């Protein structure tokens, strides 16, 4: 991607915004190197990873980045076998802990999977043993724990005892030599205990002089009776220092032994830091994940420029690539034409870089090999280039490289020269690019380009709306209608006399006036048609989602019933088999007893018991057979593509071949293809009785939905449970025809309220929402207006 377009479209400002959300310099460095990806697969994967991170943040809260630092320098030193400082070791351990915690954070437990993030985290290799050893040994940036080794514990214990002894001794010396001392206290010089002796009494306190006061009146003397004790303390301190160095060297060596794992884990953590920074930025701008195609189709719903204050930015619906490949935008100055142009380009660059875009769900972007932008006045005094020359230099470069995989953006195409020649040149440039299949968005003031767009296939007019009543632009983009000058209306409202305006009208041809009136009429109709089409599309999408949702629920209910019947059948078979085995054993024992000899009456009684057992087993067999028939009718014939039930797998399968000579067919069960006998297959259908029950249930559902409560209470729930409850409640309320509902979350810390607010931003049934007013519950409730 050419750097000029990235600069002109302010792509680097977006990267600076994302950097604010990283935890490490390594994450910032990845963002610094970020550029639009060069193939559609990468674009989709990186958009997906950002969306997965966004969902995890909304469901599970903050990612486990606590205490993380950029430890690339420490890892580099460890890879060379160097001994690391306590701070470096501690930060590496914190990085390893962060990597290990991410495996649990990203992993799914029965919920939606984070496919891309889970694939990234597969590369994480936990080395908790090393992590724990470091945390046990080091308790601060420069503090080694007594538990680091038994020797260190013993040395520090001994040092404490020696210090206690020497303090007692030196205090005794201070008291006995008080008359010779400057002050009745002791001090330390060079790790050795000394007392401050007046210089005139130095001979009265025999010992080693270690220091002298700045005035020269005091000597710091180590009494001879303390020398041995101080030597012992010094010796223990040297041993302690050596033990600390040994512990640090040992831990550093263990990192060296696992350097590949440590380095790999660190790189994954930096990548995750980068991904979650994108996700946090997406939350800030209320962004969504768009669909991506390589056909040049762009359809961005309610696009917002990410660098404009969300409170004042005006959303625009921008689309091209289906019915037309070139869009010509006209309208007054300061009306928002250039902002629209930059919004298209910047949103495309963001999406191609794996950054979610500020728009509504259902938006579509395209993958382009190049995006060119000729925007702004770039006249150069040094190069003696006028505004026109500067623009033309850029356009020459675009003409040389543009193809059907290119998006070209032109601001005031053909401006800066004679209007007649400029308009003709602009038309020629647009026509050339259109013939190549290049996707073009251009702004202009030339009326000739409006006519060109009206009569040329594949080129469409657009305009930025202007409110004549307020004499100000609305900044809304209207596609399908060329811009109207509104010069007469504006002049009239500003007080220009009517006779001057009338004279001006007479100087314009009737065809031109009719054209302007036609433009105004088209504009009004287009606004209404676009609004109706978007509303219809949204309702259609919601209806489709609801249909799919309830069809899936019905299908699951049918499967549950069939599974339950099959389980009962299998259990019954097992009982019969066990009963038969037990009866065989009993009969065998009875025959053995007969051989020993019994009277005729005993033999008759045995025979009667034998017949009872036989009758009972036959009855069980018949019962099992009857239950087996309940699973479905046996199939006499089958055909390819037929859905049938296979009891042995307890699931529905699709027949994909005709029966062979052995009476077997091949069936598709999920991703498996297996051969089974036709006799083992059962007809899978819903009975008339179940159909009646389903109708009754639907009627009951409608009746129940009419009685849906106008509020739902979430107090006492955690965030995940609350989101699930509200989602289900909004579905019921929507189907029940409620227009406004109240969600009671309480005031508390505000966490539950924020979670619900984030959910409502993206929920399909939410039209608008607000905190409760006085008398409604205030900030303890959120009132939602449903679509």
UniProtKB/TrEMBL annotation:
InterPro entries referenced in this protein's UniProt entry, alphabetically: DNA_mismatch_repair_MutS_C, DNA_mismatch_repair_MutS_core, DNA_mismatch_repair_MutS_sf, MSSS, MutS, MutS2, P-loop_NTPase, Smr_dom
SMART domains: MUTSac, MUTSd, SMR
CDD domains, sorted: ABC_MutS2
Keywords: ATP-binding, Coiled coil, DNA-binding, Endonuclease, Hydrolase, Nuclease, Nucleotide-binding, RNA-binding, rRNA-binding
Signal as UniProt keyword: no
Gene3D superfamilies per the UniProt record, alphabetical: 3.30.1370.110, P-loop containing nucleotide triphosphate hydrolases
GO molecular function: ATP binding; ATP hydrolysis activity; ATP-dependent DNA damage sensor activity; endonuclease activity; mismatched DNA binding; ribosomal large subunit binding; rRNA binding
Similarity remark: Belongs to the DNA mismatch repair MutS family. MutS2 subfamily.
PROSITE patterns: DNA_MISMATCH_REPAIR_2, SMR
The organism's place on the tree of life at top rank: Bacteria
Any one GO BP annotation for this protein: mismatch repair
Protein name: Endonuclease MutS2
């Amino acid at each position: 991607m050419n750097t000029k377009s990235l600069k002109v479209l302010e792509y680097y400002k977006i990267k600076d915004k994302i950097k604010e959300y990283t935890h490490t310099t390594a994450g910032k460095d990845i963002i610094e190197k970020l550029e639009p990806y060069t193939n559609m697969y990468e674009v989709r994967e990186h958009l997906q990873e950002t969306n997965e991170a966004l969902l995890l943040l909304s469901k599970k809260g903050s990612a486990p980045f606590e205490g993380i630092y950029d430890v690339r320098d420490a890892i580099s030193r460890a890879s060379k076998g160097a001994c690391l400082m306590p701070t470096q070791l501690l930060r590496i351990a914190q990085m390893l802990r962060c990597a290990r915690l991410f495996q649990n954070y990203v992993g799914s437990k029965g919920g939606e999977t984070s496919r891309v993030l889970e694939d990234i985290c597969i590369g994480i290799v936990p080395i908790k043993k090393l992590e724990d050893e470091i945390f046990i040994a080091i308790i601060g940036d420069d503090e080694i724990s007594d538990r680091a080794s038994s020797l260190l514990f013993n040395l520090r214990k001994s040092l404490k005892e020696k210090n206690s002894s020497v303090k007692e001794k030196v205090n005794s010396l201070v008291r006995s030599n008080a008359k010779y001392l400057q002050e009745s206290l002791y001090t330390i010089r060079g790790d050795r205990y000394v007392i401050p002796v007046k210089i005139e009494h130095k001979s009265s306190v025999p010992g080693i002089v270690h220091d002298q006061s700045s005035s020269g009146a005091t000597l710091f003397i180590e009494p001879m009776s303390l020398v041995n004790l101080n030597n012992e303390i010094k010796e223990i301190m040297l041993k302690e220092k050596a033990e600390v160095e040994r512990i640090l060297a040992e831990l550093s060596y263990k990192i060296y032994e696992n350097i590949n794992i440590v380095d790999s884990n660190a790189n994954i953590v930096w990548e995750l830091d980068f991904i979650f920074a994108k996700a946090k930025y997406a939350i800030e701008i209320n962004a969504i994940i768009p669909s991506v195609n390589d056909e040049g189709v762009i359809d961005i719903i309610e696009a917002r420029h990410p660098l404009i204050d969300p409170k004042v930015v005006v959303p625009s619906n921008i689309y091209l690539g289906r019915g037309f490949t070139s869009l010509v935008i006209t309208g007054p100055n300061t009306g928002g034409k250039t902002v629209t142009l930059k919004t298209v380009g910047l949103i495309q660059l963001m999406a191609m870089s794996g950054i979610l875009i500020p728009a509504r769900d259902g938006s579509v972007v395209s993958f382009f090999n190049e995006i060119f932008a000729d925007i702004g006045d770039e006249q150069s005094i040094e190069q003696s280039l006028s505004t026109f020359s500067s623009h033309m230099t850029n356009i020459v470069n675009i003409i040389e490289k543009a193809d059907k995989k290119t998006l070209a953006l032109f601001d005031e195409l053909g401006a800066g020269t004679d209007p007649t020649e400029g308009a003709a040149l602009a038309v020629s440039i647009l026509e050339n690019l259109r013939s190549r299949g290049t996707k073009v968005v251009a702004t202009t003031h030339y009326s000739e380009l409006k006519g060109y767009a009206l009569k040329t296939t594949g080129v469409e007019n657009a305009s930025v709306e202007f409110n004549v009543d307020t004499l100000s632009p609305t900044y809304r983009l209207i596609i399908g209608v060329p811009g109207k000058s509104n010069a007469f209306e504006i002049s009239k409202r500003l007080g220009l006399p009517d006779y001057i305006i009338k004279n001006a009208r007479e100087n314009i041809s009737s065809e031109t006036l009719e054209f302007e009136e036609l433009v105004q009429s088209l504009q009004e109709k287009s606004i209404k048609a676009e609004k109706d089409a978007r509303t219809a599309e949204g309702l259609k999408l919601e209806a489709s989602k609801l249909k799919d949702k309830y069809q899936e629920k019905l299908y699951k209910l049918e499967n549950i019933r069939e599974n339950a019947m099959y389980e009962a059948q299998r259990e019954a078979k097992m009982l019969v088999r066990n009963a038969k085995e037990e009866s065989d054993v009993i009969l065998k024992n009875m025959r053995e007893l007969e051989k020993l000899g019994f009277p005729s009456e005993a033999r008759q009684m045995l025979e009667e018991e034998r017949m009872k057992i036989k009758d009972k087993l036959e009855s069980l067999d018949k019962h099992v057979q009857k239950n087996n028939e309940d699973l479905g009718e046996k199939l006499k014939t089958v055909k390819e593509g037929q859905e049938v039930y296979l009891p042995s797998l307890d699931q529905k399968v699709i027949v994909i071949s005709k029966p062979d000579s052995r009476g077997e067919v091949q069936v598709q069960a999920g991703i498996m293809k297996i051969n089974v006998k036709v006799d083992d297959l059962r007809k899978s259908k819903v009975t008339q009785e179940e159909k009646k029950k389903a109708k009754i249930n639907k009627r009951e559902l409608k009746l129940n939905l009419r009685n849906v409560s106008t509020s739902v209470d979430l107090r006492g729930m955690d965030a995940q449970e609350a989101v699930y409850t509200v989602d289900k409640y909004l579905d019921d309320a929507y189907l029940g025809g409620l227009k406004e509902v109240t969600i009671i979350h309480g005031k508390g810390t505000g966490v539950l309220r924020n979670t619900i607010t984030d959910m409502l931003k993206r929920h399909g049934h939410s039209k608008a929402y607000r905190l409760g007013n006085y008398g409604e519950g205030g900030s303890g409730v959120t009132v939602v207006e449903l679509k």
